[in-house]
């Protein structure tokens, strides 16, 4: 195993608001890690810092030993928490776009997953339901042979059947020597696939532990323990 994601005293402020407060974290290859916390806990800020969509206020973040930038974009596959592709694009356009933009894009793998869902290559995003759009965006992301997959709220806003498909897609399509980080507040839906849990609360890490150890030590599921930690 190798460290693919590392934060040292990482902090981010928006004016007087501290979104992240001195985060120290190491995540290794071969793991699926849940970045778990309620809305406003700093999950999306951390994911955006990893993609260089934001700059740290202080401290550092490294992806496979590199500061986020051009080199790490070749190693990271990023799924934002919002729709990010133009509605006019057809599925075939998206395949061409990802093929042109990412050297590690596996077009046959993406086409096989799209065919499995009966999503025509001539269908535009505008004509798709929200759940279908979510699946298409995830398929494109998971069809890259990346080292680090950063998935921000990949199951929010979709029906339970779509969630099951999304989780199966994540499990079946990432490299065994890669790292998958799933940011979510829907713990019960993702718990079964997680190797580790990182609890974020008001910009600070309050727990980082193997999910098996957490269940053994507390006698509770990750979701039950999360609800206890974040009880209002």
| Uncertain stretches | none
| Main sheet overview | 6 strands, mixed
Proportion in β-strands = 25-35%
Distance between the termini: 38 Å
Tell me, what is the CATH class?
A: Alpha Beta
User: What is the count of distinct domains?
Assistant: 1
Query: Could you give me the name of the CATH homologous superfamily?
Result: P-loop containing nucleotide triphosphate hydrolases
Mean pLDDT: 90
CATH architecture label = 3-Layer(aba) Sandwich
Seen as an oligomer or otherwise, the chain set is: single chain
Brief account:
This protein is an alpha/beta fold and 232 residues long. It contains nine helices and nine strands.
List keywords for this structure.
about 230 residues; alpha/beta; Rossmann fold; 9 helices; about 35% helix
